[in-house]
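Continuing the series of single-chain predictions for the mutant panel. This is the parent chain; the variants come on the following pages.
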Amino acid sequence: MRGTIVIDENRCKGCQLCTYVCPKHLIGMAETFTPRGYQPARLFDPHGDCTGCLLCAVICPDVAITVYRTPRENRQDRAVATHPQTAELGSESHTLSRAIDEMERVQ
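Parent structure:
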């Protein structure tokens, strides 16, 4: 799953909790200060590695982090994409569960 976060610098007080819990180590502290004198957190994710795991948003005491996730593809699309035989089974009016069972048996 892909994701990204937006940190509201007007709310962030720079406690750094989000920097400790990010499993990909993508959150750091900004080099600048806000007009209120706080050094806010900032996302450093040039390669799009954020998974949108929510850990940073959950731990933020200032509710300054909003998480955005890209939608997951549904299970049938994933099965068709990963195993071509599933598409043939689907066209023969098999249910999704039968198609997945067949795919797992083939592997």
